[in-house]
Amino acid sequence: MIHLEQVSKHYLKKAALSDITLSLTPGTITGVIGENGSGKSTLLKLMAGLVRPTRGSVTFDGKPVTRRIASHVSYLSEQETYYPFYTVQETIDWQASQFPDFDHQIAEEILHFMNLDPEDPVKNLSKGNRARVKILLSLARKAPLILMDEPLSGLDPMVRDSIIKGLISFVDLEKQTLVITTHEVDEIESLLDHVIAIREGKIIQSISLEDLHLEEGVNLRQWMNQTYTSSTRS
Ligand SMILES: Nc1ncnc2c1ncn2[C@@H]1O[C@H](COP(=O)(O)OP(=O)(O)OP(=O)(O)O)[C@@H](O)[C@H]1O
């Protein structure tokens, strides 16, 4: 699985991440939380091989992660990365042509689950349905590592709910590991096995949800408030 060892990432002279060491446990769902600009997207891009560390190493199953071996990962970007003039079906077919691990059967199931019309041009879709298409494209791949950058951002509660149900139904935790960045901690809490809190490019806390509930006796929002308040004081 993915391992980061003393990783720092600078953009020009500015540090986006500093001295990050972490390993993901296979078959788990990890949430990454943090304020805007704290380094969440950069962390996912490093895991995906989309940016290179300035210092330290990122490995997957012991091999250095590069753009070329990025087939280990299905990466859902914050940006909209498909062609607006394609229909939903053409978008699915294009994704399938790019990734050998794309599973048409799962794509079809998610299409129905998400109530998407394959003939609709993507440019005519609502924001919620465009978000559902992104989820479909990401989850229809059998990549061992799925990275989702803000899949719930700016969506109404019904769309968020359908996306979370999609994650529960279509991520195969026997074979896949999921990392998700989000500000929507209330919605995501029931999904997570583990949470990492980032502030100004550093991991300030990393804890399992079980410990958070049983040992700390708080929910994710309370824990987040405590964590960020105490890190401001220190
Ligand atoms: N391509 C880039 N060039 C220069 N600076 C960048 C670039 N990408 C990110 N940064 C900077 O790195 C820092 C971390 O950015 P990043 O996008 O990883 O944060 P984030 O936690 O994902 O933020 P958000 O919640 O707003 O998406 C920020 O200060 C950002 O301005």
Secondary-structure map:
Layout lengths: L1 E10 L2 E10 L5 E6 L5 H9 L6 E6 L2 E2 L8 E4 L11 H11 L5 H10 L13 H13 L5 E5 L7 H14 L6 E5 L3 H4 L5 E6 L2 E7 H6 L5 H14 L1
Parallel strand pairs: 3-8, 3-9, 6-7, 7-8
Antiparallel strand pairs: 1-2, 1-4, 4-5, 9-10
Adenosine-5'-triphosphate binds next to α1.
How would you describe this protein?
With 234 residues, this protein is an alpha/beta fold. It has a single domain, classed as P-loop containing nucleotide triphosphate hydrolases (Rossmann fold, 3-Layer(aba) Sandwich). Helices cover 35% and strands 26% of the residues. The protein has eight helices and ten strands. It has helices spanning 40-48, 88-98, 104-113, 127-139, 157-170, 185-188, 209-214, 220-233, and strands spanning 2-11, 14-23, 29-34, 55-60, 63-64, 73-76, 145-149, 177-181, 194-199, 202-208. Strands 6-7-8-3-9-10 form a six-stranded mixed β-sheet, sandwiched between helices. It has a four-stranded antiparallel β-sheet with strand order 2-1-4-5, with helices on one face. Helix 5 (157-170) links the parallel strand 7 (145-149) and strand 8 (177-181). Helix 3 runs antiparallel to helix 4 (127-139) and helix 4 runs parallel beside helix 5 (157-170). The protein is globular, with a radius of gyration of 18 Å. It starts with a strand and ends with a helix. The relative contact order is 0.18. Bound molecules: adenosine-5'-triphosphate. Residues 11, 16, 34, 36-42 line the site of adenosine-5'-triphosphate.
Alpha-carbon distance between the two ends: 33 Å
**How does CATH name the architecture?**
3-Layer(aba) Sandwich
Order of helices and strands: EEEHEEEHHHEHEHEEHH
Number of domains: 1
Named CATH topology: Rossmann fold
What ligand species are in this complex?
adenosine-5'-triphosphate
Point out poorly predicted stretches. Answer: none
Gross morphology is globular
- Count of β-strands: 10
On the 0 to 100 scale, the average pLDDT is 91
Taking the sheet with the most strands, its summary is: 6 strands, mixed
Helical amount: 25-40%
How large a portion of the residues is in β-strands, by DSSP E?
Answer: 25-35%
Domain ABC transporter: 2-225
Keywords: ATP-binding, Nucleotide-binding
GO molecular function: ATP binding; ATP hydrolysis activity
Protein name: ABC-2 type transport system ATP-binding protein
